[in-house]
Each structure stands twice: as structure tokens, then as C-alpha cells.
């Protein structure tokens, strides 16, 4: 019998209630928070989240997706064992993440290798695996094609505040998939409500790319209205992406991920999620 501490159980209940109250919510992502030193060694800040993710799936009746930094795993065999244990916890979906630097020889396998290793395990449980898309990284569309062919069923971006870097990646990925006769995987675009300047600094630490114009649009005005301005920015970016996909007749499916960047952001994240759910679904061209 698994015992969940009361504080954790209360958080699970709050998340489950939110997810159940918002239509068209397919899954909840449970992130793995890990810092990396200059030698590429990890320091986990979130611990083993599989019990949390499993309990959340059972309580909410929705799928959960567990992030896993595969770069820090000791071996391929250890990674496969992690996947089997994860499925045993009732979690059958994962986003596989690489290390922070391409210059460090990590102990774990590259993401494409991890995709190939773990896809059969999660597929046998009727689940899927996904990867992260980083629009500002050179050659990202080629990486996405390789990962799609290796087994990634979807991509999720870092938190976005501008559309201009994403559109070329979607365009190139669409073209590469057509040339390779490979159906493109859905790209799930991430947004988050921002309450103040500290929130912006935190999401930049997480890897978000923030232009000067986006920073001004969000922070210029009364602080009490910062969250509303960040929501408006999210919808501007989303509308621009949808318009570009339709205008250029791209075949890449789009989805939305709303991130809760800290416990105090549950309410604004829920509001942003509801507002997206109230909009007409994206149906491509």
C-alpha cells in the first residue's frame, strides 16, 4: 500500500480538481527539476516523482506525462528499468530530456537512443513518449525529424513569449517530414502566467527566450495586472502561430501546454488553461 503525505495529497487533489474542471484537458505534465554543475553532474530538486504522477493520474482520471532527464542515468539498462518501474506506477507517458551541454560526455544515452529504447516499453502500456523542442537552437528541425523517426510521438516547447523563432522551425520540420515521408509529430506550445519580474527571471533560468518587446509588453503597467498582460501575450503568440500554419498550409499539428511555474501560480495557470479551452480547437488548414 502506498502512503501519500497529507501535504502532497492536498496538492494532488488541487491539481486533479483543476484538470477535471477544464474540458479538453488531455494530460498533466509532471516536471523533473534538476540542476547541473560544470561537470554535468546532476542535483535533483524534485526527487522521484513517479508515485506523485501515478496518484495524480488515478485521482484526476487524466493521463500524466513524466519528464525524465535521460542524460544523467547510469546506463541504458538502468534507463529501461526506470521505464518499467514508471509504468508499474501507473504512468505510461514520458517526455525524455537531454543534458544542458553538448560538450559534456554524459553517462546516459542521447535522447534519440532513449526514444528507441523506451518506445516499446511505453507503447506496450498504451502510452507515448515525447521530447523537448528548442526553437532557438540551430538545426532544431533536423533534430525533431530524427527524434520523430526514433519514436517521439510529440514535442513540447519551452515557455514561449514570441512566435518569430517558432514559425521557421515548424516550416522546416514540415518540409523535412514531407521529404522523408514521415508524418510530423504534434508540437505542443508552452505558455505560463507571469505575475512579476521575478517570474520572468525564473522562466529565463528554465530556458525560456525573452525578447525586449515581450518583457516590456508584460511588465509595463501596474504590477497587479501583470498576469493579465502575460495572458494577452500568450494569446497573441498562439494566434500568430495558428495563422502562420494555416497561411503556409503546414501539416504540423499544434497543441497548448499551460505551465504552473510555482505552487502560488495554480489559480492563474488554471485561468489561462480555461481561457485556452474556451477557444475553438485548432484544426490546421
In short:
The chain contains ten helices and nine strands.
Explained architecture:
- The protein has 285 residues and is of the alpha/beta class.
- The chain has two domains: 127 residues, no CATH class; 138 residues, TIM Barrel, CATH 3.20.20.
- The protein is built from ten helices and nine strands.
- The chain has a seven-stranded parallel beta sheet with strand order 1-4-5-6-7-8-9. Strands 2-3 form a two-stranded antiparallel sheet.
- Strand 7, helix 6 and strand 8 form a beta-alpha-beta unit.
- 39% of the residues are buried.
Which residue ranges are poorly predicted, with pLDDT under 50 across at least 5 consecutive positions?
none
Question: At CATH's second level, what is the architecture of the largest domain?
Answer: Alpha-Beta Barrel
Radius of gyration: 19 Å
Please report the distance between the alpha carbons of the first and last residues: 49 Å
Report the helical percentage: 40-55%
CATH topology of the largest domain: TIM Barrel
The CATH class of the largest domain, by name, is: Alpha Beta
Shape: globular
Number of helices: 10
Look at the helices and sheets and give the structural class.
Answer: alpha/beta
Number of strands: 9
Listing every helix as H and every strand as E from the N terminus to the C terminus, the arrangement reads HEEEHEHEHEHEHEHHHEH
Instruction: Calculate the mean pLDDT score and round it.
Output: 90
Strand content: 5-15%
Q: Enumerate the strands of the largest sheet in spatial order, edge to edge or round the barrel.
A: 1-4-5-6-7-8-9
Query: How many domains, in number, for the residues?
Result: 2
Largest beta-sheet characterization: 7 strands, parallel
Amino acid at each position: 500500500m502506498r502512503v501519500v503525505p497529507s501535504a502532497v495529497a492536498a496538492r494532488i487533489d488541487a491539481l486533479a480538481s483543476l484538470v477535471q474542471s477544464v474540458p479538453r484537458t488531455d494530460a498533466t505534465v509532471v516536471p523533473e527539476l534538476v540542476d547541473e554543475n560544470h561537470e554535468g553532474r546532476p542535483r535533483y530538486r524534485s526527487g522521484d516523482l513517479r508515485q506523485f504522477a501515478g496518484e495524480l493520474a488515478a485521482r484526476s482520471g487524466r493521463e500524466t506525462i513524466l519528464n525524465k532527464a535521460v542524460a544523467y542515468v547510469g546506463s541504458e539498462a538502468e534507463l529501461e528499468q526506470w521505464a518499467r518501474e514508471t509504468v508499474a506506477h501507473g504512468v505510461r507517458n514520458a517526455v525524455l530530456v537531454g543534458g544542458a551541454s553538448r560538450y559534456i560526455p554524459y553517462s546516459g544515452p542521447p535522447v534519440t537512443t532513449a526514444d528507441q529504447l523506451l518506445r516499446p516499453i511505453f507503447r506496450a502500456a498504451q502510452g507515448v513518449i515525447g521530447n523537448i523542442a528548442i526553437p532557438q537552437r540551430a538545426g532544431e528541425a533536423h533534430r525533431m525529424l530524427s527524434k520523430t523517426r526514433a519514436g517521439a510521438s510529440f514535442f513540447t516547447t519551452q515557455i514561449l513569449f514570441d512566435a518569430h523563432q517558432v514559425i521557421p522551425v515548424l516550416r522546416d520540420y514540415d518540409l523535412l517530414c514531407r521529404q522523408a515521408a514521415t508524418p510530423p509529430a504534434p508540437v505542443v506550445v508552452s505558455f505560463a502566467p507571469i505575475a512579476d519580474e521575478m517570474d520572468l527571471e525564473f522562466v529565463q533560468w528554465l530556458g525560456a527566450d525573452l525578447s525586449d518587446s515581450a518583457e516590456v509588453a508584460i511588465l509595463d503597467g501596474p504590477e497587479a495586472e501583470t498576469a493579465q498582460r502575460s495572458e494577452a501575450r500568450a494569446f497573441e503568440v498562439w494566434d500568430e502561430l495558428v495563422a502562420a500554419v494555416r497561411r503556409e498550409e503546414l501539416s504540423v499539428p499544434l497543441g497548448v501546454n499551460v505551465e504552473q511555474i510555482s505552487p502560488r501560480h495554480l489559480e492563474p495557470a488554471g485561468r489561462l488553461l480555461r481561457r485556452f479551452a474556451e477557444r475553438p480547437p485548432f484544426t490546421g488548414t
